[in-house]
Write a structure and sequence with these properties.
Layout (H helix, E strand, L loop, with lengths): L1 H18 L4 H52 L12
C-alpha cells in the first residue's frame, strides 16, 4: 500500500511539473528572441547575397576588357582545315 501511495505521489508531482507550461511573459520573451534570431539570420543572408553579387560584378567588370580584346578574333570566319571531299 505504501508503494502504491509513493508511486501515485511521484506521478502527481511529475505531472504537475510537466503540465505547467511557460507563463505568458515567458512565451512573449521566447517569441521576441525567436524574432530577433530570425531578423539576425535574415540580415546575414542578405549581406552574404550582396557580397556575392558585388564580387561577381567586380569579376565580370575585370573580365570584360579581356573578352572585348578577344571578341574580334572570335568573329572572324572560321577557315576550313579539311580538304574538300571528292565524290
Amino acid at each position: 500500500m505504501t508503494k502504491l501511495f509513493s508511486i501515485i505521489a511521484v506521478a502527481f508531482v511529475a505531472t504537475t511539473f510537466v503540465a505547467c507550461g511557460p507563463s505568458a511573459e515567458e512565451k512573449a520573451q521566447i517569441e521576441a528572441k525567436l524574432q530577433h534570431d530570425a531578423d539576425s539570420i535574415s540580415a546575414l543572408v542578405t549581406e552574404g547575397i550582396e557580397t556575392a553579387v558585388s564580387d561577381a560584378s567586380a569579376t565580370t567588370t575585370e573580365a570584360a576588357p579581356a573578352t572585348a580584346e578577344t571578341a574580334p578574333a572570335a568573329t572572324e570566319p572560321a577557315k576550313a582545315t579539311e580538304a574538300p571531299a571528292k565524290h
